Amino acid sequence: MDIVCLDLEGVLVPEIWVNVAQKTGIEALRLTTRDVSDYDILMKGRLEILRKHKLSLVDIQEVIATIRPLDGAMEFLGELREKTQVLILSDTFTEFAKPLMKQLAWPTLWCNNLVIGEGGMIEDYKLRIRDGKYHAIQALKALNFRTFAAGDSYNDLSMIEESDAGCLFRAPEGILASHPHLSQATTYEEFIAVIEEFLHR
User: Fold this and answer.
1) How far apart are CA 66 and CA 11, in angstroms?
2) Number of domains in the chain
3) Residue 157 lies in a domain
4) Is residue 54 part of a domain?
5) d(CA 105, CA 131)
6) CATH number, domain containing residue 158
7) What rounded mean pLDDT belongs to the chain?
8) Mind listing the pLDDT tens digit for each residue in 88-114?
């Protein structure tokens, strides 16, 4: 049995933190997992910025409420779900993702949680499991699924490498250059074609 595992941000929806940076004018929040390979360093930096500027969960959620899926993402996801099972593996947080999942017609999402303190301030984050995308692929393979994984960032590489097949989608040049052996796609048409090749093996 086959299952396709997709990253969320940059693949189906725009980067949440980039949108927050645009809304607040805080340029340091533009950094994402496309830029920083160590997720802990990235998130600790984000939390420090939020504390410094007194930005709460509600402030972030107000930005997320304005985000729409990437052009063509809904059609791509609908077509893919007709062909096979789809699982979204993301390092985002339940508190961020719900309105985005509603727009995408509620695909299954495995992600993480935030620790919210007084006044709705984000105090910390709680990973379901470290390198959760990689371990999800391992678990699915142990359940005898044939896995395909795709994403665009440093934190997607381990799951793509562990999967039976996979590809990079609209990844930055640095990742493409350091991983030339991985398949890549820049349009949803190319993306579907790569996945269909896997499904028909």
Assistant:
1) 17
2) 1
3) yes
4) no
5) 26
6) 3.40.50.1000
7) 94
8) 999 999 999 999 999 999 999 999 999
Enumerate residues 6+ apart whose C-beta is below 8 A from 157.
151, 175, 179
Q: Indicate the residue type of 98.
A: K
- Rounded to two decimals, what is the model's pTM? 0.91
Q: Which amino acid is at 57?
A: L
Residue 126 structural domain? 2-15+67-199
Among residues 105, 124, 132, which one has the least CA distance to residue 48? 124
Residue 189 CB burial class (10 angstroms; 0-12, 13-18, ≥19): exposed
Confidence label for 201 from pLDDT (cuts 50, 70 and 90)? confident
CA 86 to chain centre: 14
> Which residues are part of the catalytic machinery?
7, 9
169 near 145, Cβ under 8 Å? no
